[in-house]
Amino acid sequence: SGLHGFTDFWLVKVDKVGNFLWQSGYGGQIGQMCRDIKITPSGGFILTGETNSTTGMVTGNHSSNKDIWIVETD
Predict the structure, then answer these.
(1) I need a labelling partner for 1 at 20 to 30 A (CA). Which of 46, 55, 57, 64 fits?
(2) HEC secondary structure over the chain
(3) pLDDT score of 61
């Protein structure tokens, strides 16, 4: 999927010489900041960070400050 707003989590896979194999953007309309990424036992990824968004891929009840946001891919 493409980019969603001002800043997003951006997951990119490249080959050994740096060619793009695929990419995915995760986020809402305002801003996200990815702080860490881990590979899951099933071969997906868990991305953790923060968000200011309440739209797009970001749902739920949010405060006026940044919220912790966790995304798991397959």
Answers:
(1) 64
(2) CCCCCCECEEEEEECCCCCEEEEEEECCCCEEEEEEEEECCCCCEEEEEEECCCCCCCCCCCCCCCEEEEEECC
(3) 64
Give how far Cα 49 sits from Cα of 16, 20, 21, 40, 52, Å: 27, 24, 24, 17, 11
- For residues 66 and 47, what is the distance between their CA atoms, to the nearest angstrom? 16
Average pLDDT over residues 21-44: 92
Judge whether 72 and 46 are in contact, CB under 8 Å.
yes
Both structure tokens of 27:
């986020």
Residue 10, both tokens:
């951006």
Is pTM beyond 0.85 here? no
